């Protein structure tokens, strides 16, 4: 087999000769450069060594003794190292050269592109020009590595990474290994591809997959809404022209809360003796 058929994989090669800038390795027919920046090993002529083959910035086959988990034959988690509008997203697979997930394989909307530090489950692919690229894991691949949730997991808090995103919802792989779905009604904003998110399990399907909500539980939401109101009151020296009679539009515009949520939070605060209302205004006690 030609060496370019091993791009994106590891292979055993023999050290053919030494150079000032590294080593030339051979399979008996072709040579490939192992640059000194790609190894911390000291090799002798004739010594065999396992290397990973990739293509450098000029499209040439190059070798490294850093053997990544992610190859053309295997999947793994990789961290986003850079984002280039018009090009795509670069990921660190554990070698000196970052790998490109092209713009054509990313979501249409830039708002849900991964950012630096996000994590993606990927493999590698090699195109007809021997260029190496990232390929995202599909649903069947995620299913292969997934664990089945059971009824005892209901209502548990979980976290995981988004591996697929769409207007109707987002798909995640959790730290427990569960494959989950977040319906658009169960999230305030659409998470990024590769973003780490937190939520709770609201349903377990027969196949062991889960439905997840990123919305807080009712008591948690009530606490958050109360804090929003108290913070706004504090910013206005303890008085605000909003109360039970305020319009839903005014409440949404000021607090990003529905009128029902606003009234529940006001009721809680009044019951706790923290606020009172007078002539359409609300005051801190």
Automatic annotation (TrEMBL):
<dbReference type="InterPro" id="IPR040764">
    <property type="entry name" value="CvfB_WH"/>
</dbReference>
<dbReference type="GO" id="GO:0003676">
    <property type="term" value="F:nucleic acid binding"/>
</dbReference>
<dbReference type="InterPro" id="IPR014464">
    <property type="entry name" value="CvfB_fam"/>
</dbReference>
<comment type="similarity">
    <text>Belongs to the CvfB family.</text>
</comment>
<dbReference type="InterPro" id="IPR012340">
    <property type="entry name" value="NA-bd_OB-fold"/>
</dbReference>
<dbReference type="Pfam" id="PF13509">
    <property type="entry name" value="S1_2"/>
</dbReference>
<dbReference type="Pfam" id="PF21543">
    <property type="entry name" value="CvfB_2nd"/>
</dbReference>
<dbReference type="InterPro" id="IPR039566">
    <property type="entry name" value="CvfB_S1_st"/>
</dbReference>
<dbReference type="InterPro" id="IPR048587">
    <property type="entry name" value="CvfB_S1_3rd"/>
</dbReference>
<protein>
    <recommendedName>
        <fullName>S1 motif domain-containing protein</fullName>
    </recommendedName>
</protein>
<dbReference type="InterPro" id="IPR036390">
    <property type="entry name" value="WH_DNA-bd_sf"/>
</dbReference>
<dbReference type="InterPro" id="IPR003029">
    <property type="entry name" value="S1_domain"/>
</dbReference>
<dbReference type="Pfam" id="PF21191">
    <property type="entry name" value="CvfB_1st"/>
</dbReference>
<dbReference type="InterPro" id="IPR036388">
    <property type="entry name" value="WH-like_DNA-bd_sf"/>
</dbReference>
<feature type="domain" description="S1 motif">
    <location>
        <begin position="155"/>
        <end position="217"/>
    </location>
</feature>
<dbReference type="InterPro" id="IPR048588">
    <property type="entry name" value="CvfB_S1_2nd"/>
</dbReference>
<dbReference type="Pfam" id="PF17783">
    <property type="entry name" value="WHD_CvfB"/>
</dbReference>
């Amino acid at each position: 087999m030609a060496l370019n058929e091993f791009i994106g994989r590891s292979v055993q090669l023999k050290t053919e000769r030494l150079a000032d800038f590294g080593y030339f390795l051979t399979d008996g027919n072709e040579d490939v450069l192992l640059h000194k920046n790609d190894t911390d090993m000291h090799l002798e002529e004739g010594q065999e060594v396992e290397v990973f083959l990739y293509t450098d910035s000029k499209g040439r086959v190059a070798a490294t003794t850093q053997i990544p988990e992610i190859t053309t034959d295997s999947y793994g988690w990789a961290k986003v190292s850079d984002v280039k509008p018009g090009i795509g997203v670069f990921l660190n697979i554990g070698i000196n050269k970052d790998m490109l997930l092209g713009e054509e394989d990313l979501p249409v909307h830039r708002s849900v592109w991964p950012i630096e530090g996000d994590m993606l489950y990927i493999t590698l692919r090699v195109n007809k020009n021997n260029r190496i690229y990232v390929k995202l894991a599909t649903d069947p691949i995620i299913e292969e590595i997934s664990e089945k949730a059971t009824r005892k997991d209901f209502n548990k808090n979980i976290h995981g990474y988004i591996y697929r995103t769409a207007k109707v919802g987002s798909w995640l792989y959790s730290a427990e290994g569960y494959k989950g779905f977040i319906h658009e009604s169960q999230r305030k904003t659409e998470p990024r591809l590769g973003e780490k998110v937190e939520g709770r399990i609201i349903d377990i399907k027969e196949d062991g997959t889960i439905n997840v909500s990123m919305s807080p539980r009712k008591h948690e939401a009530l606490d958050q809404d109360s804090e929003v109101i108290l913070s706004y009151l504090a910013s206005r020296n303890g008085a605000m022209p909003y109360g039970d009679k305020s319009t839903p539009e005014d409440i949404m515009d000021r607090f990003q809360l529905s009128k029902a949520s606003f009234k529940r939070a006001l009721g809680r605060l009044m019951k706790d003796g923290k606020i009172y209302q007078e002539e359409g205004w609300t005051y801190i006690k």
